[in-house]
Amino acid sequence: MARRSARPESLAGAARQTLSAMLLALGASAALAASPGAEWRSHGFDDAGTRFSPLKQITPANVKDLGLVWSYDLESTRGVEATPIVVDGVMYVTAPWSVVHAIDVRSGRRLWTYDPEVPRAHAKNACCDVVNRGVAVHKGVVYVASLDGRLVAIDAASGKRRWEQDTIIDRARPYTVTGAPRVFKDKVIIGNGGAEYGVRGYITAYDADSGRQAWRWFAVPGDPSQPFEDESMAKAAKTWDPSGRYWEAGGGGTMWNSMVFDPELNLMYVGTGNASPWSHRQRSPGGGDNLYTASIVALDPDTGKYVWHYQETPGDNWDYTSTQDLILADLRIDGKLRKVVMHAPKNGFFFVVDRTNGAFISAKNFVPVNWAKGYDRNGRPIEMPGARAVEEPFDAVPGPFGAHNWHSMSFSPQTGLAYFPAQNVPLVLAEDKTWRHNQAQAGQPMAGIGWNLGMQVNSRAPTSQPFGRLIAWDPVKQKEVWRKEHVSPWNGGTLVTAGNLVFQGTADARLIAYDARDGKELWSSPMGTGVIAAPVSYEVDGRQYVSIAVGWGGVYGQTQRATERNIPGTVYTFALGGKAPLPEFAHRQLNALVGGVAYDPADVAAGTALYVSNCVFCHGVPGVDKGGNLPNLGYSAPETIEHLERFVFKGPYMARGMPDFSGHLSDEDVRKIKAFILGTADAVRPKK
């Protein structure tokens, strides 16, 4: 049973709550916001996904006067990736665990919350934190997808559930849903994730009113001994080698993030994910492009029928998903106005593709890359020697964290520039010749909780260097116009406005405003925690606001950080002349390196392999990393490590999503993991 709550802080708050509900019921949006583009009604602002606000009350000349109007506690400690939706004077935003908050945008007061009560045990199926990227709002209904794969329709005024659908086709598979639903043509559309574990990706449309399934499209073919669902699957199957029995590992291609829509062409576009497992040779020994992974796909939104595709990374071997933000625009290229889709996916190239037919127009790398030297005139990558090495580890640049991950991109029709965070997180990949689906062996990354990569990770130290930056990119000339370097990878998404401002949050806990034309930094505010989500802008009662939901996390943020400040998940709202005080920031406390606990050095090697298979992507390398939104075990209290079994077997942190390793690890295994933690802490401890 889901939980909902309404907790106004006073009688006045209760009155405001009642008034807001009445206004919602009456559809009184005109009284609340009259300017074009005054609301932020969908995930990417508009169906084209531009994240361009036409509001221009806040400008480069006056942004220095921006101040806090209110802040709101999301009561969370995990990653916050949500884009707030603002409709009829109410903000709808999600916290970790798919909890929805409805907030009065004038006062920042809570109207209601809805908790779908995701079972905490489901967290082990989430590769990249228990995050949620937001809701859709349509005709008085809020739609949220829960981490465990349910699509829930909630009454926008009351916070009560209207209907719920299970979107998962096979509960034996480790599917998750972290993306925001989209509504196109009265259909609610949602995909899923789980390709690191082994699932078959698909996207489903439901009738917005009744919740009945309208259509479903799979991104990769299933068992070829069974009838294919449609012609697109029969075509795709020809690009997979059945000797690899790819369907047993699912094949991947999960569609967990970007969807956009062109009403004139009546086409929706979706980005597909990496293939499963990561290793091309393991899943398809004879080669092949492995359609429709790592692709942009156009579908008929009425029927879900495949129309066209463009594959950005054929035969993906590096976890180069194409699920990053798609943006539709009309660009004048070589003197001709072209209807295009723009994309900056993980593989490090910025793509411009004709959205009418999927024809390749151009691609240019926006960060240094070493897997391909470019794309040929047919839109095929020209791969570098060694990029698919079998015998030698490959320091992939970009690595699986991506040159640009899910963090939102924006586009200004005024400047003609796209704005997005770029990065490198060094990671070495090596073919794992011993891998078999769901047959975990010690030393295989996170295989103990179900990961199936077919690759070893960091079998030697990477040589590439980490970086994080904000890039302004000209998609017509395919070149960088300006950039801003950040102190770390994993910075937040962007918002661009008609006031010629770009807003972005950073890993080191700031929200910054830049001049969209030249990148000059004009204003900043501390956030109290690293920022990964994107800001939004809207207008109420003639006043322009900028809001952002913050909370450090995501796959990188579970083990790493770039600030020692700490604060629960929070929504900040700014406007010109705002005078509210910032919430109090805590300083993160880091214990001394753990020590004083007996262990057998002979157990360290075996403990290393067990730790890699069960712990490393959540807790990082003991004593080397400092911990993100999850603790680094090298800085644990000695009594915690001494009695590690109390936490590993039916431990107290199961309520926060930690797996129960009962039946998966033995007491002897835990003893060896303890030895690795303690031995590594001793190895990095400064010598006296």
TrEMBL record:
The positions making up the signal sequence are: 1-33
Which residues bind Ca(2+) per the record? E196, N274, D319
The record lists its disulfide bonds as C127-C128
Query: Does the keyword field hold Translocase?
Result: no
Q: Does the keyword Heme apply?
A: yes
Q: Which UniProt keywords apply?
A: Calcium, Disulfide bond, Heme, Iron, Metal-binding, Oxidoreductase, PQQ, Signal
The protein's required cofactor(s) are namely: pyrroloquinoline quinone; heme c; Ca(2+)
- Annotated cofactor note: Binds 1 PQQ group per subunit. Binds 1 heme c group per subunit.
> Superkingdom of the source?
Bacteria
- Protein's name in the database: Quinoprotein ethanol dehydrogenase
Protein source organism: Azoarcus sp. (strain BH72)
